[in-house]
Each structure stands twice: as structure tokens, then as C-alpha cells.
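Ticket 4471: requesting a sanity check on a complex prediction with nicotinamide-adenine-dinucleotide. Repro inputs:
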Amino acid sequence: MQIDLTGKTAVITGSTEGIGYAIASQLARAGADVVVNGRSEDKTTKAAERLKGEGGRGSVMAAAADLSTKEGCNALVGEVPHVDILINNAGIFQPIDFFDAEDEVWDRHWQVNVMSAIRLARAYLPGMEKQNWGRVIFIASESGFNIPVEMIHYGVSKTADIAVARGLAKRMAGTGVTVNSVLPGPTLTEGVEAMLAEERAKTGKPFEELATAFVKQHRGSSIIQRAASVEEIANLVTYLASPQASATTGASVRVDGGVLDTL
Ligand code: NAD
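Returned C-alpha cells:
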């Protein structure tokens, strides 16, 4: 299968590193014009420069905006008024016990993980509907089903993403616009590295070894028994963003290494 996204503009939120960067990189190689986003101007510009260096076929643009606020989302939409492919990837995760997680923790996860995606979908879907083609993909998590006891606030935000994606797919019924959520499992990213930093400082063990131990301890049902690479997640997202995936909509598609123990 040859995926060609020439002429399509793709916004990937939170794409200066991690899963978002890998998605931006693959979409660019498939020919899309890619918009890289992160909070800081400096990091976003550097990520866009790095991406340009990879030699994708489409153009690369940097659009820094803090998507945790309505103003930040509006700024991104102002800079990039029309997109064909929206990847709602920006997300935060912080293990905090339920009894220590104050309202601020819940609110922060809600704003970044859910409201940014809702605001951008609301802004971009009408243009996609009008042209009868579009792709919206929410990067949710297996944690949206399998609520992690160490970060219930995060799991709930991801359940919401899956629900919003399903609802929006139905709202776009009969059009060429698909809306799906993708459910990664533990994945080797800078975000996970930060989460394991304390343990790394304590044990001196390499990041990959700690990530594998994390998977075995906290996601024991994992069939692959390791964390995924960012490329493994981006492969699925690139397919769902492609014209070939036109009959997949309203789905929550797993790339979790088998963590979710359901049929
Ligand atoms: P990461 O921390 O490595 O990267 C996060 C990206 O989001 C960065 O580019 C950062 O700049 C950006 N970001 C954070 N807050 C932002 C904001 N307010 N405005 C704009 N950009 C912002 O994260 P990751 O591990 O690559 O995760 C990406 C997505 O995948 C998240 O939605 C996460 O919940 C989901 N996910 C990750 C894993 C995992 O194990 N890494 C597993 C399942 C789901």
C-alpha cells in the first residue's frame, strides 16, 4: 500500500518530541504539509528545522501555541485556518495518588488532554465537512479503558477523548470525514522518560530497562512485554490519516501491545 498525502495539510499538536514528532515525521514523508506545534517558540522552531532536515516531500511550518488555554487554541487556528488532517496528540500525564490530586491537577489534565482537542475539532471540522474530506485523530490511551490507579485523572481524560471522538464521528455521518481515537500503550518517549527520571536517578538503570520493568509491573497484561517505539504508534496513525482508511471511523484503535485484555 502506497500512502500519498500530497496536498494535505496536517496539524499535529504537541509535536516537538515524543509520539507527536514521530507522527509529524511520517506524515511529512508521506507528502503532507506539516504543522509542528509545541508550547515554546524555541523548541517548536527547532523541531520544525529538524523535520525539514529529514527531507519530507511536503512543507514544514512551526506554530508555537500553548493549547492548555482557549487563547492558545485560537492563536493556532488563527495562524493555520484550514487543515485536512488534525492529530490531537498534545497530552500530559503525571502519576499522583487520588487523595493528593487537587482540583488543579484534574483541571490541568482536562484542559490539555481534552479541551484542546475539543476546541481544535470545533474549529477545523466545518472546513473538512465542507470539502467532504478530513481526518481527525485523537491520541488517547489504553488508560482510557484500563484506568491506571496511580493516575486516575489521566485515565479519565483519555476516556473523555475516546468518547468525544466517537461522538464526533457520528456527527460527521455521511461525509468523507472520519474521526477516530488511537490507543497507545506504554511508549518510549521523552514524557515517559521524565516520569521515570526519579527512579533512574535512584537506580542508575538505563531508561529502556526501567520502561520494560514499568510495563511488567504496572501493565502486566502486556503481550509484547515491552514499551512500544514512537514509530510503531506513528505507523497506525499514518494509516488512519490516509485516504485508504476511509471506512474506519468512530473507532478506538489499539496499538497497546495487547495490554487491554479484552476481545
Ligand atoms: P511527550 O511528553 O513526550 O510529548 C508531549 C508533547 O506535547 C510535547 O511536544 C509538548 O511540547 C506537547 N505539549 C504538552 N503540553 C502542551 C500544551 N499545553 N500545548 C501544546 N503542546 C503541549 O508525550 P508523549 O509521551 O509523546 O505523549 C503524546 C500523547 O500520547 C499524549 O496525548 C499521551 O497522553 C499519549 N500517550 C502516551 C503514552 C506513552 O507511554 N508515552 C501512552 C499512551 C498515550
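Notes from triage: The first helix runs from residue 18 to 29. Leaving this open until the requester confirms.
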